[in-house]
Specification:
- The protein is of the alpha/beta class.
- The protein is about 35% helix and about 30% strand.
- The chain has one domain: 2-Layer Sandwich (Nucleotidyltransferase, domain 5).
- β1, α1 and β2 form a beta-alpha-beta unit.
- The protein starts with a strand and ends with a strand.
- This is CobE/GbiG C-terminal domain-containing protein.
């Protein structure tokens, strides 16, 4: 029997404070009924490389960070919510959902699906994908 695998996708504005992002991640995990240790990957868009928020989240929760190019995110199936802002800024209609789905898909864990569709705060988004693997 195979176990479930999880990836948490995040998107955030440059000015987003880490406290806001941590609270949103914790709320998302709570809504999804998951402990942080259940998540294998923290995923986002390549444009966030070097962002202190990503590094702080990865360190706090012990997750491996995976970043995806906008083209890969734009081509990821299974996205439920589309953001005009993300489309305009990055060329992808989704960051959090698409990044979470892309991480599971790229690790050969298919077909991934959203366990938690986009959850939003003032300056961030979080989504969680799951798949058997």
């Amino acid at each position: 029997m195979t176990s479930m695998r999880y990836a948490l996708g995040v998107g955030f504005r440059r000015h987003c404070e880490i406290g806001e992002l941590v609270r949103l991640v914790e709320a998302g995990l709570g809504e999804a009924g998951l402990a942080p240790k259940a998540v294998s990957w923290l995923a986002s868009i390549e444009a966030k490389r070097g962002a202190s928020q990503l590094e702080a989240l990865a360190s706090r929760f012990g997750w491996t960070v995976e970043l995806w190019p906008a083209e890969r995110l734009a081509a990821t199936p299974g996205v439920r919510q589309h953001s005009p802002l993300a489309s305009r800024l990055f060329g992808s209609p989704s960051v959090a959902e698409a990044a979470a789905l892309a991480s599971l898909s790229e690790h050969g864990v298919e077909p991934p699906a959203l366990r938690l569709a986009t959850l939003r705060s003032q300056a961030a988004t979080v989504a969680i994908a799951e798949a058997r693997g």
